[in-house]
């Protein structure tokens, strides 16, 4: 079989700019997503990643075949009667966040049945006709709804569909569900998603306390960031089989702007984390959640915890689903490290800012290029 020619990358920036500036948001989303939902035999040029940015696909190789392993933490050990066991667990989490910015948790308290039910509802949503999904399309400059993940300065489209919903401070889940499932009981979708997000939020608050304790602070020191008008959202990500996966990317390398991200992968590998210039595949486990430090926790920890680059790659045979939950403070919350974490050896790096201020800039800049997202919030050097 003859190989498909490699589409030109030269026109991507102009083509994508033209699509993104289309004021008709329905046409905009349709033009970005039609290649995904209508099976194509050749990758359209707008999805072709620059040669130097293309991932090397070795998804069939043993995962983590390197000196680096993203730790798996057994949270049941927190209930041990031996204080040393609990202390060792906290130390393990801290070490992972300082070195990798990622760790995984098992025995986390979220039922396997609920996870499977949420994945089932996600697949039902993505399997709806495109014209139905467009009822909840995500307009340019907004965060929630169905569409494609894009940054303002992006030059290549991600090979992915996504659906982003919010639980707090004001839920839009039932509104979206009602528009999508007009001919069935829409509350099956909404109640499942709300229950799942509620369980993840509970887990997230617990993890925030553990991470805070690991910094040598009172565990409740950062609780005001995850209470009282905190922001809690979830994004379904679907990565369809790609006709030329070696040329495409599911989600470009980025850091998360959030406080904490808690992700569940299905059985298909695709998440990769950059450690010491090496891309490490995080092998999916159904009993695991992948937890990563976001930009905000990097700031709160005065850079002890790392918000690191990660990406999603695609394959040519299997679709992949991930459920990504994001825990964030209220929009008006001021983000700055406490005085106890500022020392001569570790002076402050960032100026104080609100989450709302950071969020307004977060998706304007592709964080793998130039670091504009972070640099805009650095302290001015005297």
TrEMBL record:
Needed cofactors: L-ascorbate
A GO molecular-function descriptor: 2-oxoglutarate-dependent dioxygenase activity
Pfam families linked to this entry: 2OG-FeII_Oxy, DIOX_N
Superkingdom field: Eukaryota
Gene3D superfamilies: B-lactam Antibiotic, Isopenicillin N Synthase, Chain
Keywords: Iron, Metal-binding, Oxidoreductase
Transmembrane regions listed in the UniProt entry: none
Catalyzed chemical reaction(s): gibberellin A12 + 2 2-oxoglutarate + 3 O2 + H(+) = gibberellin A9 + 2 succinate + 3 CO2 + 2 H2O
Similarity section: Belongs to the iron/ascorbate-dependent oxidoreductase family.
Protein name as annotated: Fe2OG dioxygenase domain-containing protein
Biological source species: Physcomitrium patens
Lineage of the species this protein comes from: Eukaryota, Viridiplantae, Streptophyta, Embryophyta, Bryophyta
Gene name of this polypeptide: LOC112284085
């Amino acid at each position: 079989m003859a190989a498909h020619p490699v589409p030109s990358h030269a026109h991507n920036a102009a083509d994508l700019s033209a699509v993104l500036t289309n004021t008709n948001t329905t046409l905009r989303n349709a033009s970005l997503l039609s290649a995904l939902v209508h099976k194509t035999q050749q990758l359209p040029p707008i999805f072709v990643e620059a040669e130097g940015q293309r991932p090397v696909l070795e998804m069939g190789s043993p995962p983590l075949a390197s000196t680096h392993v993203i730790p798996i933490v057994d949270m049941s050990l927190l209930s041990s009667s031996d204080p040393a066991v609990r202390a060792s667990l906290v130390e393990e989490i801290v070490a992972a966040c300082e070195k990798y910015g990622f760790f995984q948790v098992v025995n986390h308290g979220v039922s396997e049945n609920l996870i499977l039910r949420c994945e089932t509802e996600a697949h039902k949503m993505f399997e709806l006709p495109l014209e139905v999904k467009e009822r909840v399309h995500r307009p340019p400059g907004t965060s929630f709804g169905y569409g494609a993940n894009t940054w303002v300065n992006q030059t290549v489209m991600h090979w992915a569909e996504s659906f982003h919903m919010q639980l707090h401070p004001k839920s839009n889940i039932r509104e979206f569900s009602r528009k999508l499932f007009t001919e069935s009981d829409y509350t099956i979708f909404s109640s499942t998603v709300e229950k799942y997000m509620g369980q993840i939020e509970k887990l997230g608050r617990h993890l925030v306390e553990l991470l805070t304790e690991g910094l040598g602070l009172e565990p409740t020191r950062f609780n005001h960031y995850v209470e009282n008008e905190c922001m809690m959202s979830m994004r379904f990500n679907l990565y369809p089989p790609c006709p030329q996966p070696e040329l495409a990317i599911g989600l470009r390398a980025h850091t998360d702007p959030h406080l904490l991200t808690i992700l569940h992968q299905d059985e298909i590998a695709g998440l990769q984390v950059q450690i010491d210039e090496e891309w490490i595949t995080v092998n999916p486990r159904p009993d695991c959640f992948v937890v990563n430090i976001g930009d905000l926790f990097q700031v709160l920890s005065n850079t002890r915890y790392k918000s690191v680059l990660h990406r999603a790659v695609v394959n040519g045979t299997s679709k992949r689903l991930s459920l990504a939950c994001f825990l964030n403070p209220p929009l008006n919350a001021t983000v700055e490290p406490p005085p106890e974490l500022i020392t001569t050896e570790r002076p402050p790096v960032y100026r104080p800012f609100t989450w709302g201020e950071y969020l307004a800039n977060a998706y304007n800049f592709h964080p793998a290029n130039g670091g504009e997202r972070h640099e805009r919030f650095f302290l001015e050097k005297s």
